């Protein structure tokens, strides 16, 4: 086979592959062809001469002792030769030496040529799929965009992303949103799989907290630059989300930068999420303070952290005025659920006798104060 290096370069240029990887796949194709048309039990190697750009198939036979058990094995025997037999051809050979016998695929006529064509096609296709798999595997958790090409009976949405088709399952779609063929949508890569029957399968998501994070990075320059860091995020898709953020620069207000002037930045992200409300919380490493912030808009009195046997924070007992309990729980329990998701702890609420005044300050309930005064008078 002539000019194999030129062929490898041409395939690499056409499909956007690494020429070295293409050459490796071609050599594998030649070896597999030799096994199919010559002898499947022979050990072959494909060698390329960089000067002539030719490829040749070499059968490798290893010299072993006369009593080597592998010589008696029907499948292994073709790859070995006894030292006595080998010395009939070359009296200088030693145990472990490898003898080489050249073969030419072209000598096997149309059968060899058609088999080689199939092998090259197969291995180049596998290489293309491997390259795509590695490319998109590295994109798991990142934002991609594409055009809707099909919506099936199960409402799974198929999206053309660059050179590949991805799927957005109904379960990974925000409640209430629908797509038509031709729509351009954004999503994050959730999972990338590869199997022999279906090839590469890429699953997208618009319900993952990572989708929210990626949209914020797209909309807020400080997040994209790393000046503001998203420490944690929790979502109930289409309804409400909480993000814990912190600034790495003393002159940058993390919450202010994320919200933007008159809320323009956070509103742009909310619009993409079908009106999902997004609460921005300043992150702190002090667990009690962080939990109190995650319970916003509720005003709480006290936080007690309960640890498990391994010393990990497992549960938070929150004491709060009775009039703040409904705010802490939120509609359908959404606020306390998001706080629990964000902190990774179970949350238990305890009501106190205190109340909040018009200024949002906690003070003892008047009936409790009167009772105490009567007790001491």
Separation, N- and C-terminal Cα atoms: 110 Å
Radius of gyration: 34 Å
Which architecture name of the largest domain does CATH use?
A: 2-Layer Sandwich
Q: Average the pLDDT over all residues and give the rounded result.
A: 87
* Top CATH class of the largest domain: Alpha Beta
Q: What's the number of helices?
A: 12
Oligomer: single chain
When the domains are counted, the total is 4
Can you tag this structure with a few keywords?
alpha+beta; 377 residues; 12 helices; OB fold (Dihydrolipoamide Acetyltransferase, E2P); GMP Synthetase, Chain A, domain 3; N Utilization Substance Protein A, Chain:P, domain 4; 4-stranded mixed β-sheet; 17 strands; 5-stranded antiparallel β-sheet; single chain
